[in-house]
Design goal:
The two termini are 31 Å apart. This protein is of the alpha/beta class. Helix 3 (76-79) links the parallel strand 4 (70-71) and strand 5. Helices cover 33% and strands 18% of the residues. It has one domain (8-67, 93-180): 3-Layer(aba) Sandwich (Rossmann fold). It has 7 helices and 8 strands, in the order E-H-E-H-E-E-H-E-H-E-H-H-E-H-E. The strands form 2 sheets. Strands 3-2-6-7-1-8 form a 6-stranded parallel beta sheet, sandwiched between helices. The protein has a two-stranded parallel ribbon with strand order 4-5. The protein has helices at 18-31, 50-53, 76-79, 93-111, 123-128, 134-142, 159-164; strands at residues 8-12, 36-41, 59-64, 70-71, 84-85, 117-121, 149-153, 167-170.
């Protein structure tokens, strides 16, 4: 089954739930027999959902990340010494290649006719960290077949993408356990 009209969706904002919303959408679509490709950009470790998603035959999941986080803010090194900090305009080139290759792979699969929904988890964050250019994202969207649903997640959605999307949901953080010093919990945050 495929969608009669594939739209472009964005889940953005500084609140929790962007990836979770896209995974819920994938499960819903899979329940109707749709085929989903879920690519996690900037994530190298498997999260709890992978333990279940691997058993859903029409959802394919790929992780494309390095075992470190990136930032443009040198102050973050004080809190997280393993973060790779780079000057704006000079992102780690091996990471750029990985993300660009992943987007190229997603595009090939998108036009193949094999998938009804493509989820690009954290691709918007990859744009913000200069790991992929906005031009490449817009070119990807230009090649979208009419019946394929595209879902993109990540903080910092630029106006250019928001204007292009058919649906935009902003997750807004009002309160979070991190503010109380509660670390990420298995089965909740990962």
């Amino acid at each position: 089954m495929s969608f009669s009209q594939g739209l472009i969706e964005i889940y953005t904002g500084n609140g929790k739930g962007k990836t979770t919303a896209s995974i819920g959408l994938a499960i819903r679509a899979a329940g109707y027999g749709n085929r989903i490709l879920l690519i996690h950009f900037m994530k190298s470790k498997r999260y709890g959902e992978s333990n279940i998603l691997k058993d859903i035959e029409n959802i394919e999941e790929i992780y494309l990340g390095k075992p470190y986080f990136v930032s443009k803010n040198p102050e973050i090194k004080k809190m997280f010494p393993d973060v790779v900090v780079f000057e704006p305009g000079n992102p780690p080139m091996e990471y750029v290649k990985m993300i660009e290759d992943g987007l190229r792979n997603a595009e090939e699969r998108m036009v193949s006719g094999k998938y009804d929904m493509i989820i690009l988890d954290e691709i918007i964050t990859a744009v913000y960290f200069e790991l992929v250019g906005m031009k490449k994202i817009l070119e990807f969207l230009d090649r979208k077949p009419a019946n394929v649903e595209i879902v993109m997640t990540g903080r910092y959605a630029p106006d250019e993408l928001i204007e292009r999307a058919d649906l935009v949901t902003e997750m807004k953080e009002i309160k979070h356990p991190y503010q109380k010093g509660i670390e990420a919990r298995e089965g909740i945050e990962y």
